[in-house]
Amino acid sequence: MGEPDPTGRFGRFGGRFVPETLMPALMELEQAFRDAWADGPFRSELDKLLCDYAGRPSALTECHRLSAELGVRVLLKREDLNHTGSHKINNVLGQALLAKRMGKARLVAETGAGQHGVATATAAALLGQECVVYMGEVDMARQELNVFRMRLLGAEVVPATSGSRTLKDAVNDAMRDWVATVERSHYCLGSVMGPHPYPWMVREFHRVTGTEARRQMLDATGSLPDVVVACVGGGSNAAGIFSGFSESRDVDLVGVEPAGGAAVGHGIPGIVHGMMSYLMQDEFGQVEEAESISAGLDYPGVGPEHSHLADSGRARYEAVADDEVVEAFVLLSRTEGIIPALESAHALAWVSRERAALAGKTVLVNLSGRGDKDVAQMMDVLADRL
Length: 386
Fold this sequence. Notes:
The protein is of the alpha/beta class. It is built from 16 helices and 14 strands. 45% of the residues lie in helices and 17% in strands.
Protein backbone atom coordinates (compact mmCIF):
# COMPACT_ATOMS: atom_id res chain seq x y z
CA MET A 1 0.00 0.00 0.00
CA GLY A 2 2.19 2.77 -1.36
CA GLU A 3 1.57 6.24 -2.72
CA PRO A 4 -1.17 6.91 -5.27
CA ASP A 5 -0.06 7.95 -8.78
CA PRO A 6 0.60 11.64 -9.56
CA THR A 7 -3.11 12.21 -10.25
CA GLY A 8 -4.01 10.82 -6.83
CA ARG A 9 -5.37 7.48 -8.05
CA PHE A 10 -5.07 3.94 -6.78
CA GLY A 11 -5.48 2.06 -10.04
CA ARG A 12 -8.58 3.59 -11.62
CA PHE A 13 -9.97 4.89 -8.30
CA GLY A 14 -9.43 8.13 -6.38
CA GLY A 15 -8.54 11.44 -8.02
CA ARG A 16 -9.88 14.93 -7.39
CA PHE A 17 -13.47 15.57 -8.49
CA VAL A 18 -14.08 18.94 -6.82
CA PRO A 19 -15.08 22.51 -7.73
CA GLU A 20 -12.25 24.48 -9.31
CA THR A 21 -12.15 26.75 -6.25
CA LEU A 22 -10.95 23.84 -4.08
CA MET A 23 -8.10 22.68 -6.32
CA PRO A 24 -5.54 25.18 -4.94
CA ALA A 25 -6.43 24.19 -1.36
CA LEU A 26 -6.02 20.49 -2.13
CA MET A 27 -2.67 21.07 -3.87
CA GLU A 28 -1.52 23.20 -0.92
CA LEU A 29 -2.59 20.43 1.47
CA GLU A 30 -0.77 17.73 -0.51
CA GLN A 31 2.48 19.71 -0.50
CA ALA A 32 2.11 20.57 3.19
CA PHE A 33 1.58 16.90 4.06
CA ARG A 34 4.56 15.79 1.95
CA ASP A 35 6.78 18.37 3.64
CA ALA A 36 5.53 17.52 7.15
CA TRP A 37 5.75 13.76 6.66
CA ALA A 38 9.41 14.15 5.62
CA ASP A 39 10.15 16.47 8.54
CA GLY A 40 11.76 14.82 11.57
CA PRO A 41 10.53 17.31 14.21
CA PHE A 42 6.91 17.03 12.93
CA ARG A 43 7.03 13.23 13.06
CA SER A 44 8.62 13.34 16.52
CA GLU A 45 5.93 15.70 17.84
CA LEU A 46 3.19 13.43 16.45
CA ASP A 47 4.84 10.28 17.83
CA LYS A 48 5.10 11.90 21.26
CA LEU A 49 1.40 12.83 21.25
CA LEU A 50 0.43 9.33 20.11
CA CYS A 51 2.46 7.86 22.97
CA ASP A 52 1.92 10.33 25.84
CA TYR A 53 -1.58 11.58 25.01
CA ALA A 54 -3.36 8.91 22.95
CA GLY A 55 -1.85 5.98 24.84
CA ARG A 56 -0.08 4.12 22.06
CA PRO A 57 0.97 1.44 21.45
CA SER A 58 -2.48 -0.07 21.87
CA ALA A 59 -2.57 -3.59 23.29
CA LEU A 60 -2.86 -6.89 21.44
CA THR A 61 -5.28 -9.17 23.30
CA GLU A 62 -5.62 -12.92 22.78
CA CYS A 63 -9.25 -14.01 23.22
CA HIS A 64 -9.04 -17.42 24.89
CA ARG A 65 -12.73 -17.94 25.67
CA LEU A 66 -13.96 -16.56 22.34
CA SER A 67 -11.41 -18.72 20.52
CA ALA A 68 -12.64 -21.82 22.35
CA GLU A 69 -16.24 -20.90 21.49
CA LEU A 70 -15.52 -20.44 17.77
CA GLY A 71 -12.73 -22.97 17.21
CA VAL A 72 -10.65 -20.14 15.73
CA ARG A 73 -7.65 -18.47 17.38
CA VAL A 74 -8.76 -14.83 17.64
CA LEU A 75 -6.60 -11.88 18.68
CA LEU A 76 -7.75 -8.27 18.91
CA LYS A 77 -5.81 -5.12 18.10
CA ARG A 78 -7.22 -2.88 20.82
CA GLU A 79 -7.80 0.51 19.21
CA ASP A 80 -10.73 0.83 21.64
CA LEU A 81 -8.16 1.53 24.37
CA ASN A 82 -6.91 4.72 22.73
CA HIS A 83 -7.83 8.08 24.29
CA THR A 84 -11.37 9.00 23.10
CA GLY A 85 -12.11 5.29 22.60
CA SER A 86 -11.32 4.56 18.97
CA HIS A 87 -8.69 4.54 16.21
CA LYS A 88 -9.86 7.98 15.08
CA ILE A 89 -7.43 9.83 17.37
CA ASN A 90 -4.42 8.66 15.25
CA ASN A 91 -5.58 10.54 12.16
CA VAL A 92 -6.99 13.55 13.97
CA LEU A 93 -3.83 14.32 15.94
CA GLY A 94 -1.89 14.20 12.67
CA GLN A 95 -4.30 16.48 10.82
CA ALA A 96 -4.64 18.94 13.71
CA LEU A 97 -0.84 19.27 13.91
CA LEU A 98 -0.72 19.71 10.13
CA ALA A 99 -3.39 22.43 10.28
CA LYS A 100 -1.41 24.25 12.96
CA ARG A 101 1.72 24.01 10.79
CA MET A 102 -0.29 25.47 7.87
CA GLY A 103 -1.49 28.39 10.01
CA LYS A 104 -5.15 27.31 10.00
CA ALA A 105 -6.82 27.77 13.38
CA ARG A 106 -10.26 26.32 12.54
CA LEU A 107 -11.08 22.62 12.08
CA VAL A 108 -14.16 21.53 10.14
CA ALA A 109 -15.21 17.90 10.49
CA GLU A 110 -18.07 15.50 9.89
CA THR A 111 -19.03 12.48 11.94
CA GLY A 112 -21.38 9.50 11.82
CA ALA A 113 -21.23 7.64 15.12
CA GLY A 114 -19.51 10.56 16.77
CA GLN A 115 -16.10 8.95 17.27
CA HIS A 116 -14.36 11.13 14.69
CA GLY A 117 -16.18 14.20 15.96
CA VAL A 118 -15.13 13.53 19.55
CA ALA A 119 -11.53 12.91 18.46
CA THR A 120 -11.50 16.16 16.42
CA ALA A 121 -13.01 18.17 19.27
CA THR A 122 -10.40 16.65 21.60
CA ALA A 123 -7.47 17.57 19.37
CA ALA A 124 -8.86 21.07 18.85
CA ALA A 125 -9.13 21.58 22.60
CA LEU A 126 -5.58 20.28 23.06
CA LEU A 127 -4.11 22.61 20.44
CA GLY A 128 -6.39 25.62 21.04
CA GLN A 129 -8.22 25.43 17.71
CA GLU A 130 -11.81 26.35 16.84
CA CYS A 131 -13.88 23.28 15.93
CA VAL A 132 -17.14 22.82 14.01
CA VAL A 133 -18.55 19.30 13.54
CA TYR A 134 -21.40 18.43 11.15
CA MET A 135 -23.53 15.42 12.11
CA GLY A 136 -26.69 13.98 10.61
CA GLU A 137 -29.81 14.78 12.60
CA VAL A 138 -30.67 11.06 12.77
CA ASP A 139 -27.19 10.21 14.03
CA MET A 140 -27.36 12.98 16.65
CA ALA A 141 -30.46 11.34 18.09
CA ARG A 142 -28.92 7.86 18.34
CA GLN A 143 -25.53 9.12 19.58
CA GLU A 144 -26.60 11.74 22.13
CA LEU A 145 -23.70 10.94 24.44
CA ASN A 146 -21.10 11.76 21.81
CA VAL A 147 -22.93 14.97 20.90
CA PHE A 148 -22.67 16.02 24.56
CA ARG A 149 -18.98 15.04 24.67
CA MET A 150 -18.20 17.19 21.62
CA ARG A 151 -19.99 20.19 23.07
CA LEU A 152 -18.29 19.67 26.44
CA LEU A 153 -14.94 19.76 24.63
CA GLY A 154 -15.84 23.12 23.12
CA ALA A 155 -16.95 22.13 19.62
CA GLU A 156 -19.97 23.48 17.79
CA VAL A 157 -22.13 20.57 16.58
CA VAL A 158 -24.24 21.45 13.56
CA PRO A 159 -27.08 19.10 12.50
CA ALA A 160 -27.25 18.00 8.85
CA THR A 161 -30.93 18.13 7.99
CA SER A 162 -30.98 17.26 4.28
CA GLY A 163 -31.35 13.87 2.57
CA SER A 164 -31.22 10.88 4.88
CA ARG A 165 -29.81 13.12 7.68
CA THR A 166 -26.88 10.74 8.22
CA LEU A 167 -23.15 10.67 7.49
CA LYS A 168 -23.37 11.30 3.71
CA ASP A 169 -25.28 14.51 4.32
CA ALA A 170 -22.90 15.59 7.09
CA VAL A 171 -19.99 15.20 4.63
CA ASN A 172 -21.85 17.39 2.10
CA ASP A 173 -22.35 20.12 4.70
CA ALA A 174 -18.76 19.94 5.95
CA MET A 175 -17.44 20.28 2.39
CA ARG A 176 -19.68 23.30 1.77
CA ASP A 177 -18.35 24.95 4.95
CA TRP A 178 -14.77 24.25 3.86
CA VAL A 179 -15.35 25.76 0.40
CA ALA A 180 -16.64 28.96 2.04
CA THR A 181 -13.89 29.24 4.68
CA VAL A 182 -10.88 27.56 3.08
CA GLU A 183 -8.54 30.47 3.79
CA ARG A 184 -8.75 29.92 7.55
CA SER A 185 -10.14 26.37 7.90
CA HIS A 186 -8.75 22.88 7.53
CA TYR A 187 -11.20 20.11 6.67
CA CYS A 188 -10.30 17.31 9.08
CA LEU A 189 -11.75 14.47 7.01
CA GLY A 190 -12.51 11.38 9.05
CA SER A 191 -11.78 8.46 6.76
CA VAL A 192 -9.70 7.27 3.78
CA MET A 193 -12.09 8.93 1.36
CA GLY A 194 -12.63 12.24 -0.41
CA PRO A 195 -10.38 13.93 -2.96
CA HIS A 196 -6.61 13.38 -3.11
CA PRO A 197 -4.58 13.68 -0.88
CA TYR A 198 -7.08 12.67 1.86
CA PRO A 199 -7.28 8.89 1.21
CA TRP A 200 -3.50 8.59 1.16
CA MET A 201 -2.85 11.05 4.00
CA VAL A 202 -5.42 9.52 6.36
CA ARG A 203 -4.10 6.00 5.68
CA GLU A 204 -0.57 7.15 6.51
CA PHE A 205 -1.75 8.64 9.80
CA HIS A 206 -3.34 5.26 10.60
CA ARG A 207 -0.37 3.17 9.43
CA VAL A 208 0.82 3.08 13.05
CA THR A 209 -1.91 0.50 13.80
CA GLY A 210 -0.63 -1.98 11.22
CA THR A 211 3.02 -1.42 12.08
CA GLU A 212 2.37 -2.10 15.77
CA ALA A 213 0.11 -5.09 15.08
CA ARG A 214 2.66 -6.81 12.85
CA ARG A 215 5.38 -6.52 15.50
CA GLN A 216 3.02 -7.57 18.29
CA MET A 217 1.78 -10.64 16.38
CA LEU A 218 5.36 -11.82 15.81
CA ASP A 219 6.21 -11.25 19.48
CA ALA A 220 3.06 -12.97 20.78
CA THR A 221 2.68 -15.90 18.39
CA GLY A 222 5.96 -16.15 16.51
CA SER A 223 4.21 -15.73 13.17
CA LEU A 224 1.88 -13.51 11.19
CA PRO A 225 -1.89 -14.13 11.31
CA ASP A 226 -3.58 -16.16 8.60
CA VAL A 227 -6.33 -13.55 8.27
CA VAL A 228 -6.64 -9.85 9.18
CA VAL A 229 -10.24 -8.62 9.49
CA ALA A 230 -11.63 -5.10 9.92
CA CYS A 231 -14.96 -3.36 9.42
CA VAL A 232 -15.34 -1.00 6.46
CA GLY A 233 -17.48 2.09 6.07
CA GLY A 234 -15.13 4.61 4.53
CA GLY A 235 -12.47 2.15 5.66
CA SER A 236 -9.90 4.06 7.74
CA ASN A 237 -9.31 1.46 10.44
CA ALA A 238 -9.08 -1.29 7.81
CA ALA A 239 -6.58 0.70 5.76
CA GLY A 240 -4.47 1.27 8.86
CA ILE A 241 -4.17 -2.35 9.89
CA PHE A 242 -4.02 -3.71 6.31
CA SER A 243 -0.97 -1.51 5.69
CA GLY A 244 1.04 -3.62 8.13
CA PHE A 245 0.33 -6.87 6.27
CA SER A 246 -0.38 -6.01 2.62
CA GLU A 247 3.13 -6.96 1.49
CA SER A 248 2.80 -10.43 3.07
CA ARG A 249 0.82 -12.27 0.41
CA ASP A 250 0.13 -15.27 2.68
CA VAL A 251 -2.01 -13.07 4.95
CA ASP A 252 -5.62 -12.77 3.80
CA LEU A 253 -7.12 -9.28 4.16
CA VAL A 254 -10.88 -9.14 4.74
CA GLY A 255 -12.97 -5.98 4.96
CA VAL A 256 -16.49 -6.35 6.36
CA GLU A 257 -19.26 -4.01 5.19
CA PRO A 258 -22.84 -3.70 6.47
CA ALA A 259 -25.30 -5.51 4.21
CA GLY A 260 -27.27 -2.27 3.78
CA GLY A 261 -24.17 -0.27 2.88
CA ALA A 262 -22.02 -2.71 0.92
CA ALA A 263 -20.39 -0.34 -1.56
CA VAL A 264 -17.76 -2.82 -2.74
CA GLY A 265 -20.37 -5.57 -2.75
CA HIS A 266 -22.56 -3.39 -4.93
CA GLY A 267 -19.62 -3.04 -7.32
CA ILE A 268 -20.61 0.06 -9.30
CA PRO A 269 -17.90 2.73 -9.76
CA GLY A 270 -19.12 6.27 -9.35
CA ILE A 271 -18.14 9.69 -8.08
CA VAL A 272 -19.06 11.04 -4.67
CA HIS A 273 -17.44 13.48 -2.27
CA GLY A 274 -14.60 14.28 -4.65
CA MET A 275 -13.42 10.72 -5.44
CA MET A 276 -14.10 7.87 -7.82
CA SER A 277 -14.81 4.66 -5.99
CA TYR A 278 -17.31 1.86 -5.60
CA LEU A 279 -20.62 3.43 -4.69
CA MET A 280 -24.18 2.33 -4.06
CA GLN A 281 -26.24 3.67 -6.99
CA ASP A 282 -29.60 3.01 -8.55
CA GLU A 283 -30.19 2.32 -12.26
CA PHE A 284 -30.14 6.06 -12.97
CA GLY A 285 -26.76 6.60 -11.28
CA GLN A 286 -28.30 8.28 -8.26
CA VAL A 287 -26.63 7.61 -4.91
CA GLU A 288 -28.63 5.12 -2.85
CA GLU A 289 -29.09 5.56 0.87
CA ALA A 290 -27.03 3.23 3.07
CA GLU A 291 -28.66 1.51 6.03
CA SER A 292 -26.81 0.05 8.99
CA ILE A 293 -27.36 -0.51 12.68
CA SER A 294 -24.04 1.29 13.07
CA ALA A 295 -24.06 5.04 12.40
CA GLY A 296 -20.32 4.89 11.67
CA LEU A 297 -20.82 2.55 8.70
CA ASP A 298 -23.94 4.23 7.36
CA TYR A 299 -22.17 5.47 4.19
CA PRO A 300 -22.93 4.60 0.52
CA GLY A 301 -19.31 4.67 -0.68
CA VAL A 302 -15.90 3.34 0.31
CA GLY A 303 -12.38 4.74 0.23
CA PRO A 304 -10.79 4.44 -3.23
CA GLU A 305 -7.81 2.36 -2.09
CA HIS A 306 -10.23 -0.30 -0.86
CA SER A 307 -11.84 -0.37 -4.30
CA HIS A 308 -8.38 -0.88 -5.79
CA LEU A 309 -7.54 -3.62 -3.29
CA ALA A 310 -10.78 -5.36 -4.21
CA ASP A 311 -10.16 -5.02 -7.97
CA SER A 312 -6.59 -6.29 -7.66
CA GLY A 313 -7.67 -9.24 -5.51
CA ARG A 314 -5.35 -8.29 -2.64
CA ALA A 315 -8.30 -7.92 -0.27
CA ARG A 316 -11.84 -9.23 -0.30
CA TYR A 317 -14.94 -7.58 1.08
CA GLU A 318 -17.82 -9.39 2.72
CA ALA A 319 -21.15 -8.16 4.07
CA VAL A 320 -22.96 -9.05 7.32
CA ALA A 321 -26.53 -8.36 8.41
CA ASP A 322 -27.56 -6.30 11.43
CA ASP A 323 -28.79 -9.42 13.27
CA GLU A 324 -25.36 -11.02 12.96
CA VAL A 325 -23.78 -7.82 14.29
CA VAL A 326 -26.01 -7.85 17.36
CA GLU A 327 -25.09 -11.48 18.07
CA ALA A 328 -21.38 -10.65 17.81
CA PHE A 329 -21.84 -7.59 20.05
CA VAL A 330 -23.22 -9.86 22.78
CA LEU A 331 -20.77 -12.70 22.13
CA LEU A 332 -17.61 -10.65 22.70
CA SER A 333 -19.12 -8.93 25.72
CA ARG A 334 -19.93 -12.24 27.41
CA THR A 335 -16.84 -14.27 26.46
CA GLU A 336 -14.14 -11.63 26.94
CA GLY A 337 -15.64 -8.79 29.00
CA ILE A 338 -15.08 -6.38 26.12
CA ILE A 339 -18.04 -4.40 24.74
CA PRO A 340 -17.18 -3.61 21.11
CA ALA A 341 -18.35 -0.69 19.03
CA LEU A 342 -21.09 -1.75 16.63
CA GLU A 343 -18.67 -0.98 13.80
CA SER A 344 -16.12 -3.46 15.14
CA ALA A 345 -18.86 -6.02 15.80
CA HIS A 346 -19.23 -6.30 12.00
CA ALA A 347 -15.74 -7.80 11.76
CA LEU A 348 -16.47 -10.15 14.66
CA ALA A 349 -19.76 -11.18 13.07
CA TRP A 350 -17.96 -12.32 9.92
CA VAL A 351 -15.47 -14.37 11.95
CA SER A 352 -18.33 -15.98 13.86
CA ARG A 353 -20.27 -16.80 10.67
CA GLU A 354 -17.18 -18.22 8.94
CA ARG A 355 -15.96 -20.21 11.95
CA ALA A 356 -16.06 -23.53 10.10
CA ALA A 357 -13.96 -22.26 7.21
CA LEU A 358 -11.56 -20.54 9.63
CA ALA A 359 -11.14 -23.54 11.96
CA GLY A 360 -7.54 -23.91 13.09
CA LYS A 361 -6.48 -20.54 11.70
CA THR A 362 -5.20 -17.47 13.51
CA VAL A 363 -7.35 -14.38 12.93
CA LEU A 364 -6.45 -10.82 13.88
CA VAL A 365 -9.45 -8.49 14.28
CA ASN A 366 -9.00 -4.74 14.48
CA LEU A 367 -11.26 -3.65 17.34
CA SER A 368 -11.64 -0.11 16.05
CA GLY A 369 -13.63 1.31 18.96
CA ARG A 370 -15.37 0.62 22.24
CA GLY A 371 -19.09 0.17 22.61
CA ASP A 372 -19.90 2.71 25.32
CA LYS A 373 -21.42 5.02 22.71
CA ASP A 374 -23.73 2.23 21.52
CA VAL A 375 -25.02 1.02 24.88
CA ALA A 376 -28.11 3.24 24.96
CA GLN A 377 -29.07 2.12 21.43
CA MET A 378 -28.48 -1.54 22.30
CA MET A 379 -30.58 -1.28 25.47
CA ASP A 380 -33.60 -0.95 23.18
CA VAL A 381 -32.46 -3.63 20.74
CA LEU A 382 -31.72 -6.19 23.46
CA ALA A 383 -34.46 -5.21 25.91
CA ASP A 384 -36.26 -8.57 25.81
CA ARG A 385 -33.16 -10.74 25.58
CA LEU A 386 -31.14 -9.85 28.68
